[in-house]
Amino acid sequence: MSLDAETFDALIDTVRRFVAERLRPLEAEVEEADAIPAHIVEEMKALGLFGLSIAEVYSGLGLTMVEECRVALELGRTTPAFRSTFGTNVGIGSQGLVMAGTPEQKAQWLPRIATGEIVTSFALTEPDVGSDSGAVKARAVRDGDVYRLTGTKRYITNADKASLFTVMARTGDEPGARGVSAFLVPRDLPGVSIGEPEKKMGQKGAKVADVIFDDVPVPAANRLGEEGEGFKIAMRVLDRGRLHISAVSVGVAERLIADCVAYATERKQFGKPIAEHQLIQAMIADSKTEALAARALVLETAAAKDAGKDVVMESAAAKLFATEMVGRVADRAVQIFGGAGYIADYGIERLYRDVRLFRIYEGTSQIQQLIIARETIKRGG
């Protein structure tokens, strides 16, 4: 379902003003405090940002993939930590439930996820399991009406405040991905504990931490799909998440380009604004061209997904290109700003650190390359 054009345009305008007037002025404060102010989180809930991708019948906005990407583009114009506040509710933390949940599971959880009452997390990565996500070691053993869940998950976004986890765990003796199942695990079950948040390079204010499951009795009714379908569910979730992250990457790139142009037209060297020097113009031109190409790829792929097409390869290509692109744009931005780009006052160095993560999470660039190659060969070119 899609919003009518007038309503969606109003939403975009509201998000754009929220980013410009409420979020960007707080960027330095969030960096310093490593926390998102509570009043901003409440404003995000009021705007419906926690339920962008959840159907209206469950109190969400029910955006299409194209609409979600267009909102993500706007959110990319500020520090990515703000988006991460509700990003797991919109993406990986809720979409397994949206895609594979029973009507009873959806009715129980989705309305509270959409309003932000419940914060969700996606628990796949483990201390020894990252890119090889089919090698999950956490185990869930059936014991009557419950599964006994034991294992440790690592680098889990929003784990510090999540009250519901989508957890991938091994349920059988099948090797590799075929033995992995998905579960909805409430934080308040006995045996669930959260580690201390990690100190990170960037995206201050967005926390990641270990989640430890020690013989946790997860109701069998909380399993998503059938036993052995967890990996398939995870991959479908990541297809959508990769498009969202791609759109955010384009938004950050557009923000950086605008900042570069503003600085280059004011900063003078050799008697004229540096924007008039050809080598500066070349960096701006390369950045703009790549950002336009990434935007087109993301929105075209999102439209194809909305049309029901298989976009496994295209989503991976969008993630690879957009996230690598914003890294190059951020690097050029530091160069254009010169010494000022390396100093915290201008925010360029912060965004330079922030965007580095985009090439790692929801599948590294190298994993995207493998997916693209595999799908291209499967399709015959």
Would you mind describing this structure in some detail?
With 381 residues, the chain is an alpha+beta fold. The chain is 50% helix and 15% strand. The chain contains twelve helices and ten strands. It has a four-stranded mixed sheet. Strands 2-3-7-6 form a four-stranded antiparallel sheet, with no helix packed on it. Strands 9-10 form a two-stranded antiparallel sheet. Helix 4 runs antiparallel to helix 9 (278-306), helix 8 runs antiparallel to helix 9 and helix 10 packs antiparallel against helix 11. The chain starts with a helix and ends with a helix.
Beta-strand portion reads 5-15%
- What share of the residues lie within helices? 40-55%
Shape: globular
Largest sheet: 4 strands, mixed
> How many beta strands in the DSSP annotation?
10
Q: Rg, please?
A: 21 Å
Helix-strand topology string: HHHHHHHEEEEEEEEHEEHHHH
The mean pLDDT is 96
Q: Can you count the helices?
A: 12
Walk me through the topology:
Elements: H1 5-23, H2 27-33, H3 38-47, H4 65-75, H5 80-90, H6 95-100, H7 103-114, E1 120-123, E2 139-143, E3 146-157, E4 164-170, E5 180-186, E6 192-194, E7 208-219, E8 223-224, H8 230-266, E9 268-269, E10 272-273, H9 278-306, H10 312-337, H11 348-354, H12 365-379
Short structural description:
The protein is an alpha+beta fold and 381 residues long. 50% of the residues lie in helices and 15% in strands.
